[in-house]
């Protein structure tokens, strides 16, 4: 690499210029030697975006330009939602056969149990859509859009507890410190919106009745990547973006006046010190100012039609609900925000599963449906990838007392269900199969690395060529061992 | 999260100059190519080695295999290595296509070609070679006599470059003050320095700043990042962890300039020093800064392995600059660290006595209890030393009694009434008693003249006496259930009987007396509420007096803590106080049921910042049933039996009294003194094994404490290597890494980037040093000085290299964009904490207190709440008020799973992992924070207030404002810009007086009410502008 190239990188890739930044860039250019100036002008012409992609990205024409990731934190039960196991009814309260369990590790929450009685789902399943996919009665709305979904029933993970499992799901590694996939994607593909962050995180409300596992900022942090690739949490309470609002008594015109003075001071500072970071700083203050307008505009639903609001159901009017978050996700997709992640909590049904899982599904089902339907009616589903997943599945045997109407389920990393929809994914299909107990994978196992590789593929990225040097290694979102793109589910 | 922790710009530039211009060096030119492209399959990792070929060792590279040799020095055609690189065939070419490595570039090939042709000589990896003793070269490149400048100047001269001129003195004083103290210089300090034109002025400034207690706070920050100090456990519940005494130890260690070797030894193994002082024990908290959990389903072997791995990784990164993590699953592919090395290094930590779980409690043992002075410390240490024997004696006595037929009360879900004797020969010791709560009159006496109701002693009260018999221990919460009837026995002196006696329960509720004798004896006030029990009891013999909760005015559900007796005049003996308790359900009564007691203690622990039990029991109750060992379960059972179980209480005296006394004293200390987690060594360490492929459930070969073979030998003092040996080994003079890694980190902190630009990786995949001789010279000097950190800092900051101007010409920027050759100083965006502290200092709000528990300043709503676990005690952020809002950022509460946004926004790490260098990003979120965070804006208002209270004409005031922030006077143009801004804002706020009022009332500190709001607001905006200047947020 040559130093000039580094410098241009500094000017263009590492720091994002805005319109105002470009103007400042012009000032800066006069200070450069002709050789650098020519190259810089070329680079700026190519990269009018605040935050351009890495050179050579995407690797090939992407099917999806953006991704919306619906994370069901806690581990939704596959047995009560998508992985239909009718034969289990005959197995009620019978011991899980050793031939199935095979002495595999289980958490210490149930390892002390004397018995592992099979708990068939008490929920009814029916076939939906053209392909007749089985969906539980808990998800009547999702069932309506099943023709858009690729339901993958054979995903497995390594971790058996929430914290490492979530860290693994989000960063491809159980040990904290790695970059989240949203950060990876915004690092690789950059942003197409100059007024909003490339990676936005939403943490909707959840029912206070259910036990909710924690989230961690590391789930959307940039890890070893530069901080600017961290997810920005849009908040339902307080400022939607941290420190977005001016202090009391400072209106937009006062802020503008202050920023005008600031820009002049900072230009003088740049003229004096020649530090390219100063130019970036000028641009970032301008972006901050634009966000003060663009973010409130984003979160203002008043121009949504009654029909659209109706799609999402009455909960859409409650700020911070899952439905409202889904609508916000659509609005972000419209604005070309690269990654939107909704993290819904409360899916950890160790006990009282029938009652609590129903609450969880009620909270989210309509929003999931509406998001898919709304994206589709606007033509956005074609180039938006939507993924629904938890960090692991749940056991077929009951944790705690099993009755005809009540049971609980422990963590189960060996198989769980994920669905994908939209850009690049074949709708109306079911992929992979588990055994009769939804305990082991019978056909087409899918690791989280495979899932990450597939997600990147839909976005036009070859996961093998997407790495970042960290602690002497080429870190990849798809891990060290070979990962496979799930060709069978690609459109 | 290493997030926010950037290891400098990774710009792999082996050299700026073309390689042809200098001698080819294996370490500088060849190893990076081989390491990145070949070593993964042909390096140190035996398990993944292909074709039994190693290219990292000349012996293997030149050995003949099937008639071919990978490397034939001087013979390109015969070198299979070369033939494979240039092969056009996919099945032959190296690196192979399936490695996802791109083919070698033309430049890389040219280098390899030349290397083979020139003889293919190897060098040991530079960082593992002994530290050289270089002599500073003759002055060149604009350098003077300073040795650092001579090294830097020599390199510059080779590039036909020079050091930049010295920075203006205003810039220097601000740069130095910010770097050494983390705070800006005051205008007076600037003036004093500018006025001092004598020689040595700068050096005197350095000395003054090094002597400031702010120096320790500033330098502690970097270390706390490295050792991932935080105020929560980090995993799952992410509850509060109280280990701030360790943080304060670090601050103090820098301030008293504890030599770095001793600093190292005390942190890693202070507990193993002979007769360690309490501060040396607190230092071992280094080992307790791990991420921990007590998640219900977690698996012990896994947690244990993660903790040990965390300790190895951090120690290896911080002292050795090595990336050891790789070797936890397989031999390191680039550095000679085997998997066995990793686990053998981990074996040093296998003897640590702390459990792998945190119990979700503030402190888990072992702990240090830190007294206020040495005398008190002696007493504290003594109590903790003797308590185990007393408790063992108590348990032994209980065992004997139980074996001898002492039977428990048969209880169940049904109601039960039982008697408990709370005081027989003495009062129950309470935490409150040690805290100095007076128990009024009375004296327990024994002897032939003392009549007793039971036991050996009775309480003597004379004249107007009052006494409380405490009814509690271990902070069990006694609540009036179905009924409580307290009783005591009294022997009235027949010669000198009291006028009256009274009883009442002690409670949080408002109580009243039950009086026997003259109802007016306790005064008219008491008489109003008192109830009358009857005439004075008979004299000359013991009489039982009783009072019910109802008679004392304590309703059901209220807590009670004892029985208060009083007498008016005369004399009496009092003995055998107790209560008849009626519980609705025996199995829900903590005095009868261990499980009920455990439940009560756990819920109390949740609500109460004080621990309801001594730390060790508190911790045990924090563990789930599956996490407790059999022995720990037994300890809980015994504790309840020996200390709490009411039916045994009387029978266990007097052994119980002695043990309870020590227990209450310890609980008092733990409630009033800092307690900090430390380490202790188990008598027998847990066995260490190689964990096959890094799996916690696949222990392989047993290993014993050892250091990697490629580094100097360990030289243990005794038969078995210990942590102390490890610590001493790290700072041995012949160790090639510790001194280099350490000086590099301080260099990076002061200069902006390390001489090795990958401070966490001194291995083959890291960058070689830009100035190897300077690095070695600094390392040697550092060791020779006795690891004197202040001396090292002084050496660096007095150099011209440090003092030069940061201004960069376009030509120089083009030639050396990332400032590897140091022909200028680097301009650095201030660290998160410095940005906040600078603002607070300018705003006149900064509090100077050093140390103590962390504080919770302003934080936007909903930072913790949306992410936290429901049962976590860091779920809800409760902001502090008053002075706590304005403490230095070092003391801001650090929650690992949701760090303070005011810090995280500016690249502060999460402290989930070690972090040896932070990134310096530049984002719009930072702009928003500096403009709008109430902490920032309130300080701007504070600054405006300071300005307006200065009696000076406006132009001078503007100049002063600019100078206070930047340390230099404004130019004419800048002055004009500032004046224009003031005019604009003044005009606006004159027209919007309500807005002006709102501007000056941001924040919780009280604004000066005498200042006209419009002007005040306009100046506040000017201050807000000044605080956001590029020049203000940078160290120039």
Tags for this entry?
A: 491 residues, Alkaline Phosphatase, subunit A, 17 strands, disordered N terminus, B: 1036 residues, alpha+beta
Topology:
The complex is a heterodimer of chains A (491) and B (1036).
Chain A: H1 3-12, H2 19-29, H3 34-46, E1 66-73, H4 98-101, E2 125-128, E3 133-136, H5 140-144, E4 149-156, H6 162-171, H7 181-189, E5 199-202, E6 232-234, H8 252-273, H9 276-299, H10 306-312, H11 322-334, E7 339-345, H12 353-377, E8 384-389, E9 393-398, E10 409-412, E11 416-422, E12 429-431, E13 433-434, E14 441-443, E15 446-447, H13 448-458, E16 467-470, E17 473-476
Parallel strand pairs in A: 1-7, 1-8, 4-12, 4-15, 5-6, 5-7
Antiparallel strand pairs in A: 2-3, 4-11, 8-11, 9-10, 13-14, 16-17
Helix pairs in contact in A: 1-3, 2-9, 8-9, 11-12
Chain B: H1 26-37, H2 39-42, H3 58-62, E1 64-65, E2 68-69, H4 80-86, H5 106-117, H6 147-158, H7 169-181, H8 187-195, H9 201-211, H10 213-226, H11 244-255, H12 260-269, H13 278-283, H14 300-320, H15 339-347, E3 367-369, H16 374-403, E4 416-423, H17 431-434, E5 443-446, E6 457-462, E7 465-470, E8 483-492, E9 500-507, E10 514-517, H18 524-529, E11 531-534, E12 542-548, H19 549-552, E13 560-568, E14 571-583, H20 594-607, H21 615-622, H22 630-644, H23 655-672, E15 675-677, E16 688-691, E17 699-703, H24 723-730, H25 738-751, H26 772-784, H27 789-797, H28 800-803, H29 810-815, E18 828-829, H30 832-842, H31 901-904, H32 924-932, H33 934-948, H34 954-966, H35 972-991, H36 993-999, H37 1013-1027, H38 1030-1033, E19 1034-1035
Parallel strand pairs in B: 10-11
Antiparallel strand pairs in B: 1-2, 3-15, 4-14, 5-6, 6-14, 7-13, 8-12, 8-14, 9-10, 9-13, 16-17, 18-19
Helix pairs in contact in B: 1-5, 7-8, 7-9, 10-11, 12-24, 14-15, 16-23, 25-26, 25-27, 30-33, 32-33, 33-37, 35-37, 36-37
